[in-house]
Write a structure and sequence with these properties.
Helix 6 packs antiparallel against helix 7, helix 8 packs antiparallel against helix 9 and helix 14 packs antiparallel against helix 15. Helices cover 46% and strands 9% of the residues. Among the domains are: 73 residues, Phosphorylase Kinase, domain 1 (2-Layer Sandwich), CATH 3.30.200; 124 residues, Transferase(Phosphotransferase) domain 1 (Transferase(Phosphotransferase), domain 1, Orthogonal Bundle), CATH 1.10.510.10; 48 residues, no CATH class. It contains 16 helices and 10 strands. The protein is an alpha+beta fold. Strands 1-2-3-5-4 form a 5-stranded antiparallel β-sheet, with helices on one face. A 3-stranded antiparallel β-sheet has the order 6-7-8. Keywords: Membrane, Transmembrane, Transmembrane helix.
Length: 461
């Protein structure tokens, strides 16, 4: 059954499952040029004009005229509505808020209707929102809401149970009522211009991405300390949805890449500017103590860094790496270096990964061996300025260069597979005493029995 909702003063949205139609009164345009042909040509021109920015817009697949009504038809099969953001945790909403600022920057030549019903997104495109209704030469959207007011309202609509922002929401309106969420909303309400809004959201993303990386670092260290302990607990699953809101897509994709750079680094959990918050849970405005503004140089650095991360959010990893290269690896702190290395790993640039983070060689080489990617191993062996023992060991074993395997045995972690590889290498060079000593050293009685068999066979000859 179709649902009709007013979207502006001249038109409605008709929603029928995945099919959405915008119906506008032709008489409201006051121009003979408003025909189907002219509207389609204007849309084509807009598509070309927007160039790469067209990713923020959802174009109709068909335009029709019925009597005095112009109808734009949209296929939204692969999208969910803006209201779906309500079901995501605060951290997962932030990149979408940043995207709205990016769309707002285009408003001088492509204005959109700042209404939750006009925005959609694809869960497989992290942080990317699309607008259905936008102005062309032939179609006006009659938007009376200022850009900043529109974004502020949409941010709070995603965070609360309010459909419209009439005054200041109370804490009870928020789906998440943690202090950092309330502080974030308080600052959003205070902001009056787009530049300040962009700066605030960017700082939030940058600071919280670093904080989350610190949390992950601690968790990794704890995991290492508890390695080998069997506690029977299931692996922790990352929480993405607000537990007290039923998801309309319970079978939604379970990919964890929505807030990840290159699939690996989670961003944005909240905001930690130096703000004061009293114990009052009502709607009274709160006093803020804002930190001193960063220096111009620091701000330029942060802006460049954030732009690079945004490119990674949009899966433009190569462009992101190019921008990070311009900033310079030596200028990064430890966390940013980790992100830079992760991006290279996602691009399968293993030479850079191992050069900058030799400790990752073990995992990288294990992946290559599992994929039987010997060509990449060979490339690493030939191109690494500093020989890496894991590369040397595995490439040598594949090529039956048993002497090199034995030379590197004390430089790699020995697991069950490598035990056998080292043992077979000793046998391959007919160093049975070495094989026996190695079997004794690791306490492997099965290998010890095998070496005795080889020795007996050798003596019998």
């Amino acid at each position: 059954m179709s649902i009709r909702r007013p979207i502006n003063r001249i038109g409605n949205l008709d929603i029928d499952d995945h099919e959405v139609s915008y119906r506008a009164d032709l008489n409201a345009f006051n121009g003979e040029s408003v025909t189907v042909d002219n509207i389609e040509k204007a849309l084509q021109r807009k598509n070309v004009e927007l160039n790469e920015d067209k990713k923020y817009f959802h174009f109709p697949y068909k335009v029709q005229q019925f009597s005095n009504t112009i109808i734009h038809h949209y296929n939204n099969k692969d999208y969910v509505s803006y209201q779906y953001l309500r079901q995501l945790l605060f951290a997962y909403k932030l990149p979408y808020f940043v995207t709205m600022v990016e769309i707002a920057k285009l408003s001088n030549h492509t204005n959109i209707l700042w209404d939750a019903k006009n925005l959609i997104f694809d869960e497989d495109s992290p942080g990317l929102l699309k607008a259905m209704l936008f102005e062309t030469d032939e179609m006006k959207i009659f938007n009376n809401t200022s850009v900043v007011s529109g974004i502020k309202e949409l941010i709070l609509v995603a965070m609360t149970d309010l459909e419209r922002l009439n005054g200041k929401p109370t804490r009870s309106n928020f789906f998440e009522q943690d202090d950092h969420v309330i502080k974030f909303a308080e600052e959003i309400l205070r902001i009056e211009n787009l530049d300040d809004l962009e700066h605030f959201l960017n700082q939030t993303l940058l600071e919280e991405q670093k904080k989350q990386d610190e949390i992950e670092k601690v968790e990794m260290e704890n995991a290492k300390r508890s390695k080998g302990k069997k506690n029977g607990k299931k692996k922790k699953v990352e929480q993405k949805y607000i537990s007290n809101i039923k998801s309309s897509k319970a079978k939604a994709k379970k990919k964890n890449n929505m807030l990840y750079i290159g699939g690996g680094i989670a961003v944005a959990l909240g905001i930690f500017l130096n703000m004061g918050l009293n114990d009052n849970t009502g709607s009274k405005a709160l006093d803020l103590e804002v930190e001193a503004a960063p220096s111009e140089t620091d701000q330029e650095f942060n802006n460049s860094l954030l732009h690079a991360y945004r490119l990674a959010f949009s899966s433009e990893v190569e462009s992101s790496i190019d921008m990070l290269d311009e900033i310079g690896y030596n200028n990064f702190d430890e966390i940013d270096r980790g992100i830079y290395i992760k991006l290279h790993r996602d691009m399968k640039d293993y030479e850079t990964v191992i050069t900058l983070a030799p400790e990752q060689a073990k995992e990288v080489v294990s992946e290559l061996v599992a994929e039987t990617n010997i060509d990449e191993l060979k490339k690493l062996k030939e191109n690494l300025k500093e020989p890496n023992p894991y590369v040397e060991f595995e490439y040598a074993y594949f090529n039956q260069d048993y002497e090199t395997v034995i030379e590197n045995k004390d430089k790699v972690d020995i697991n069950g597979i490598r035990e056998d590889q080292i043992f077979q290498s000793y046998i391959g060079v007919e160093d049975y005493d070495g094989a026996e000593d190695f079997a004794k050293e690791i306490g492997n009685s099965q290998l010890l029995s095998e070496v005795n068999m080889y020795k007996n066979d050798s003596f019998s000859e």
